[in-house]
Amino acid sequence: MESTVLNKTDDRIIQIESPVLNIDKLSVSYGGDKYSIKDVSAGIQKNKITAIMGPSGCGKSTLLRAINRMHELYPETHHKGGITLGDEDIYKINPIELRRKIGMVFQRPNPFPTMSIYDNVIAAYKLNGIKLKRSEKDEIVERSLREVGLWDETKDALHKKGTFLSGGQQQRLCIARALAYTPEVILLDEPTSALDPIATAKIEDLLVKLKKNYTIILVTHNMGQAARISDHSMFMYLGELVEYGKTKKMFTTPKDERTEAYLTGKFG
Amino acid sequence: MNTTNSISNQKLKWRVFNDKLFSIVMMTLAFISAVPLLSILYQLIKKGYKQIRLNFFIEVAPDTMEAMMAKVNHEIIPGGIANGIVGTLVIVGMASLIAIPLGLITGIYLSETSKGKMANIVRFVVDMLQGIPSIVLGVIAYIWIVKPVTSGFSALAGSVALSIMMLPSIIRSTEETLKMIPPTLKEAALSLGVPYYKTVLKVLLPTGMSGISTGIILGISRIAGETAPLMLTALGSSAINLDITQPSSAIPLLVWEFYNDPNLIDLIWGASLILLLIIFLLNIVAKAISKKWKVQY
Question: Quick one: A2-263 is in which CATH superfamily?
Fold first, then answer.
């Protein structure tokens, strides 16, 4: 067992030099002995888009959620192995602190329905009771909305409810909300699966722009999306990290036959 | 004509007829169920409108002698139900102060803890509480408050009895409303590094505000008309009373008193009408709030 893991590491898993985030032999269980992800080791490179692909139930969302410890919302979870952000063990810092460094965007746009667009962007400050001057708030709102390309569309309607926006706009608002705290890493869990193709294209363009300032990890069901925008790709199957490499290489010459089968549409 | 897939003209007509018949029957039955309410209103207005003047709201209930004199002289019975109105406001207000925080917290707890022994026990107890006859709650409040705390009948004892009656509806509506909120909203807040308690208080509660406050107001309107538990607790008072440790009147108590006094019996219509209008008003406010504060996800 140990030797096969080592073998895999040599061959199918790319080694990242000085990763911003390092996942080390991580296994996560939602209760009991059944692990949803098993022995996953991978480094995440700074300022790149890393896509996590795989069929339903392969553990890609679990892996993503383990990175900001959102999987702990289920009471019975436990894990083995660990993750480090920079040189900090994320399981040793308070999840509240951690989530301020690692932002997250979800499958369905989920702006806070009781808040205006403006308040949604600064929600992290507002809900945490961090007092800001009016000018500081204005600045954060404008910067974040500009970053997601929503400023021109919403600058005259900042005090309308966020839920009045279209689905794609709402999702960009949610990205702006995650950016307002200037996190180091942004996790996106199938962020375009509820959107139409045009809105999807906008989000994809946005992500490519955002990687200049942020490290992005993207779970996607859509191979095309991974191929279009990601620099590195992980392929997961049955809770295992099967292959991890440069996206272009992986899509043209996959090393594992399971990856090849998935990429050529034989399953998934 | 495609014979296998289409239906004959006659059959089609029959179906259209059936459809119409069904809607007519439905409308008739719906109307019939509205009849009791309309006839109650009609009765109360017909018999009570004469009493309802400004005095009715600002004067306390007359005593039997005054009423008898007025009756002999064929005048309108003097006085009003101010002691009842103030009493109801004080008792119900106090009951809300007790029940709302307790109910909210329990409702939040139940919505956040869907499994678990403790939560199931609480849920069961709340269901049982709903079924307890109100007179029994009066007895309990008598034992808990009237004897040991206020050493005598008091508005406070009435409030305690009514607050227990309110609890189940507040708890249930809070729980149900919060459960309807998409879990992604909670995740959104937690993923921003917002602590759990702030997520509940600042995201979930405001989002569920419409449903929760509707539940609270309906709870209030349910207890505003309660009589039995007040008989054993607040007892009644002929004067306006603001001291919660003292006996107090309430509109339903007044209706009961008027009913038991042949000279005052004519006042039950006006008093009932006011009680009914207060409850209607509460229901309308509840509707308006649930519409106005409705949150679109």
Answer: P-loop containing nucleotide triphosphate hydrolases (3.40.50.300)
How far apart CA B64 and CA B54 sit, in angstroms, is 21
Given an 8 Å threshold on Cβ–Cβ distance, is A112 in contact with B185?
yes
Sort out which chain B residues have CB atoms less than 8 A from A108's CB and list them: 182, 184
Nearest to B240 by CA among B90, B86, B93, B92: B86
Q: Which residue has the tokens 């490519």?
A: A208
How many domains does one find in chain B? Answer: 1
Whether B178 maps to a domain, the answer reads yes
State whether B193 and A106 contact (CB < 8 Å).
no
- Chain A, nearest residue to B185 by Cα: A110
Residues in chain B, total: 297
B191 reaches A (C-beta below 8 A): yes
Give the predicted TM-score (pTM) of the model: 0.83
Q: What is the DSSP string of B8-50?
A: -HHHHHHHHHHHHHHHHHHHHHHHHHHHHHHHHHHHHHHHHGG
- Asked if residue B29 belongs to a domain, the reply is no
Residue B99 C-alpha from the chain's centroid: 13
CB contact under 8 A, A70 and B190: yes
pLDDT tens, residue by residue, A158-206 = 999 988 899 999 999 999 999 998 999 999 999 999 899 999 999 999 9
- Interacting residues of B76 by C-beta distance below 8 A, sequence separation 6+: B50, B51, B53, B70
Q: Tell me the pLDDT tens digit for each residue of B91-117.
A: 999 999 999 999 999 999 999 988 889
Q: Best of B191, B202, B209, B295 to disrupt the A interface by mutation (most A CBs within 10 Å)? A: B191
* CATH, residue B99: 1.10.3720.10
Q: Are A98 and A49 in contact (CB under 8 A)?
A: no
* B118: in domain: yes
Identify the contact set of chain A against chain B, taking CB-CB distances under 8 A. 68, 70, 73, 96-100, 103-104, 106-108, 110-114, 123-124, 126-129, 161, 163, 174, 177-178, 181
